[in-house]
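Hello,

Our lab assistant flagged a job as stuck in the queue for most of the afternoon. It eventually completed. Since we weren't sure the result was trustworthy after the delay, we are filing this so someone can double-check. Below is the sequence as submitted and the structure that was eventually returned. Let us know if re-running is recommended.
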Amino acid sequence: MNISIRAKLSVMMFLEYVIWGAWLPLLTLYLTSYVHFRGSGSGALDFTASQTAWIMNTFAVASITAMFVGGQLADRYFSSERFLGFSHLVGGIMMLLLPMQTHFWPFLVIMLVHCLFYVPTLSLTNAMCFATLKDAQKDFGFVRLWGTIGWIAASTPFVILLKNKAGAEMATGLSYMFTIAGLASLVLAAWCLTLPHTPPSEKRQEKFAPFEAVKLLAVPSILVLFVVTYLDTLVLWCHFFWTSPFLGKVGVPNNWMSSVMSIGQIAEIGTMAALGLFLKKLGWRKTMILGILGQVVRYSIYSIATDQMMWLVVASNIIHGVCYAFFFASVYIFVDEHFPKDARTSAQSLFNLLILGLGPLTANPLWGWLGDHYKVSGPNATAAEFNHLFLIPLGLAIFATVVLFIFFHPAQKAEAQPVGSPAPAS
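-- returned structure --
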């Protein structure tokens, strides 16, 4: 059977985001202890919130390392499909080893190895699409959409795997997140053998993008946007760190948590489709402010929610699509629109480094420390203690909105055309 290049790349994108989407939403739930394990009094593992923060930070460390090592190797010395295949082979094996780990240091090291091999593939899959699609401007959006579908699909098995589970059974059910991610990674490693040959670039003496990108902070609009993006990244990663345990506190059944969090990805499909219209009608500043105000609404709900407000907490996950598309996607588009062609890659690298690397590297310890401070990681935590914690991201989101409103005044261009990007966990 002759499979088109677009179809092959769509399968690649689907599996790429199944891997990430399988473990990120539920990782905190697996690593720490919560009372919503239906009376068991303990989670799969009993790590502190601070230890959990270090494990979450393996992805951020790998994001920074990928800038300086992984991306350079893939771009300059190996064909893309071989680099992808080998990376997913190693990453998949690491994922399959994680359910066997019960101590902090082995778990941390294995997760770090996985992330070091997985993170470079996020940007490389995008690059392969642009290099091999005949009409990338037309077809990339369709191919990248399958990544979002993959993230959503990764949550569906847990509706069955975690149904009516408690105690040790719950821990075992949660551990399947690593099995799903590992198997998807191994399947993708094999699938890479079918992908078009994409040789490395011959331009090996180009200036190193991350160093060149720092110079862009001399531009006032970019400096302001960089600061606001950092603040919003802190807020974003609080969502990934604490939403799944909080859902349990307000009564969401364990088997539906991952699916509830995937509501944001479903909403993202619609908001991304409408983003071009909003940018054209409202402009950069107002559209980005709407994105951050989505965070304000989300954490306002989180900071007052009780056991009787589960429906409102669940519904608030729709806002995640607005938060991502109207702010983070707009940032990538703004950079693409406002810089000359030879500076765009450096600017995109700068914001990728911030959103996937430096931002979460500082965010995870912050949310881990606050989790221990407000005692939300212990078996006796209450929804009210989560309410106190969520006042912090709420305050950061309000502050970021004010900074953007007062200081961000970019020149407008005629039209903004949405483009694909190796964006954050959406």
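-- support follow-up --
The delay was a queue issue, not a problem with the job. The result is valid. The CA atoms of residues 279 and 339 lie 17 Å apart. The chain has 16 helices and no strands.
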